[in-house]
Amino acid sequence: MKFFTRPFKQVSRIIKINRVLTYYQIDKMVLGNSKYAWLILINLMLPWNWRAQSQGERGERIRLALEELGPIFIKLGQALSTRKDLLPEDIGSELRKLQDDCPPFDEAHSKAIIEKGLKRSIEDAYASFDPTPMASASIAQVHAASLHDGTEVVIKVVRPDIKPVIEQDVGIMKSLAGLLEAAVKESKRLHPKEVVEEFEKTILDELDMMREASNASQLRRNFENSDLLYVPEVYWSHTNDNVMTMERIYGTRISETEKLIEQGIDLTDLSAKGVTIFFTQVFKHNFFHADMHPGNIFVLPDGRYAAIDFGIMGTLTPDDQRYLAENFLAFFNRDYLRVSELHIESEWVPKETRVNELESAIRSVCEPIWDRPLKEISFGLFLMRLFQTARRFGMEVQPQLVLLQKTLLNIEGLGRQLDDELDLWDTAKPFLENWMHERVGFKSLVKNTQANLPLWIEHAPQLPGLLHASLHKLAHADFQQQSIQLAKLEKQIQAQTRAQSFRTLGILLIVFAFLPGLVNFDWINESVLQLLLVVSGAYLILKKT
After folding, report:
1. pLDDT 10s digits, 244-261
2. Is the C or the N end of the chain the one with fewer CB within 10 Å?
3. Whether residues 464 and 497 fall in one domain
């Protein structure tokens, strides 16, 4: 029965998607100016599309279509809303209105998933459990509870049977992305296939509660005893692939500025802390919370940030860290030549790229930014324009850089919402300069020496033996083998030289034999002499060395 049910569900889902996209005229947006525009008319002939169409603005129509298609498409829209490098502003601004709120699933399902995962009853695992969800989203919902020692916790439970829904919808998205690339040449600039693949990886990672819990634990260790950021504790005894139990925190959403002011929180200080947290995560810890939108950030009564939802985290390679820091500093100093050189050195663009052409392109994009007051200069805007320009020269934006850009835009938005006078450069430049000094200066040398000294001491007794073995091999094995090869080569060259000499002499003898009047000996016949010369010449030519 399942064999027939699944294809039927897939066809039914495809029909619904087609109906929604047609109603909101998404088909006209995509195919209207392409060679496949005739498909629009055929699509309207399908029975499920026999109704009046929505007439709103295009951004609003796209948002409403995604909302009607359900939570997986809503999450895709939310992911796209951060890609200002790909979307026009009118569409991006509408997508940022998407809310990942879904109807809660049944209390019985939550209890069953928790008990199956923890292998014990709710009563054995928790002293209290509130069946009414605190929040419900597309991937999971959250319940309040307490442990038997009185600790208040929250339980995050993955939605039942959500993975097949994700796989089905993402599969359809991939097909639509392929059709989009085939039908509309201009769409290739948007990389729709890559966007969907990146989205698939992100959303599947969010399904794994063990992964999210380990992310939270790492971030908590990074900011242990910090006056900047607090991360709730994970209770591993009550956590598995589908259930995560964390310490419950009490704070004010960072977007509720009026409440923060009432609590005596200094918003200017709070906005500067947000920038410091970002750069600390990216450059000091190399592990950053990549989903820092207002819904995931709270402020504790003591003025510290508190983060939740650790499904999406980002990291950079050491080279990417250094090149980004140098890019920011070079941009601040308007050294566009250095920005261009860094792009080529890091191979973000092909090595054959002409540095002067890239410099000119970057200058034309970035220089107008400096006409604005310093406090209005956006790091996120700088990164976005930098990546857009570099893409013209063959740059393929890596996922970790996209996550970084998204996070930076979120941090900037939060910071300027708290303090519209926020000057990111004032906080960022000293931080980056100190980081670069520690990374490449004398401090870095001392730090690396201290870190590696125990290992060097441990291996020190082996060094004399290793050095002797290496020198012995170098003196005997390698040189002896090279000498044998050189001797063989010398013999081959000598043999080839002798053979060439014999061939030359043989040819000369044959030529000499047929020169008339050169031989006038009475004791030998000229014909016999010619024959002897030819035979001798032939012998020399054919002689083997």
Report:
1. 999 999 999 888 888 999
2. N
3. no
Q: Is 451 helix (H, G, I), strand (E, B) or coil?
A: helix
Cα 110 to Cα 113: distance, rounded to the nearest angstrom: 5
Which tens digits make up the pLDDT trace of 76-125? Answer: 787 777 666 567 777 877 887 776 667 788 888 999 999 999 999 999 99
Least confident of 150-159, 383-392, 443-452: 443-452
3-state helix, strand, coil in the chain (%, to 5): 65, 5, 30
Q: What is the tens place of the pLDDT at every residue in 25-73?
A: 887 777 777 776 777 788 778 787 788 888 888 888 888 888 888 878 8
Are 128 and 138 a contacting pair, CB within 8 Å?
A: no
Q: Is the dihedral angle over the CA atoms 522, 524, 525, 526 positive or is it negative?
A: negative
Model confidence at 138: pLDDT above 50: yes
Of 427, 430, 431, 383, residue with least CA distance to 271: 427
Query: What's the pLDDT at 4?
Result: 39
Residues 242 and 274 in one domain: no
Catalytic residue among 291, 309, 419, 423: 291
DSSP one-letter code for 526: H
3-state secondary structure 323-338: HHHHHHHHHHCCCHHH
Domain holding 519, by residue range, is: 490-542
Residues 208 and 241 in one domain: yes
One domain for residues 470 and 520: no
Dump the DSSP string for 79-124: HHHT-TTTS-HHHHHHHTT-----PPPPHHHHHHHHHHHHTS-HHH
- If one counts the domains in the chain, the total is 4
The pLDDT assigned to 239 comes to 95
- Asked about 266 being catalytic, the answer comes back as no
Q: Taking Cα atoms as reference points, which of 203, 183, 186 lies closest to residue 80? A: 203
- Predicted TM-score (pTM) of the model is 0.70
| One-letter identity of residue 326 | E
